[in-house]
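Quarterly update from the structural biology core.
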Amino acid sequence: MKLFYKAFLLIFTYIVFLINYAYSDYVIINFYKTNGKIIGSADGVDSWFLNAPAFKFNLKNLESGKYRLALYDGTSCKKYGAPAEINNPKLKPWKTSHLVIFNVTENGVFDTTLGMKPDKFTEETRGLISIGSLRGYPLLLFKDNEKYLTGCGMVPVLN
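Predicted structure, tokenized:
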């Protein structure tokens, strides 16, 4: 009987991983300064537990200081429009103009994994922002609370 439970547990675990893998969305976003110089990339995937995106950043050549990652509803890095919560009030709990706040040390490198989440997870906020919903939109980097753009990356659309 113990062998049956071990086999069942093993098969169940593989099924859970297979289902999770089948529904996960993965993306690589390249970030560029406003002058076109590449400053790094971020690998993004939806968290299976929270249904929220998480990013593994690999940014370099940045000035030291505090940065914020923002989601805008424009069509490109040059025409990035307004913060996404302005046109979609449901996104207000996500604070799309301050999705992720992070510090860059004096070496100019930021290579950490960070997750995005709203202030409170509710049925209304859960899943509003995912890798799939970010596709085709710009993610902008601003230094401190400045309104001038430091960098931008477009979330690629699926072919």
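The mean pLDDT is 84.
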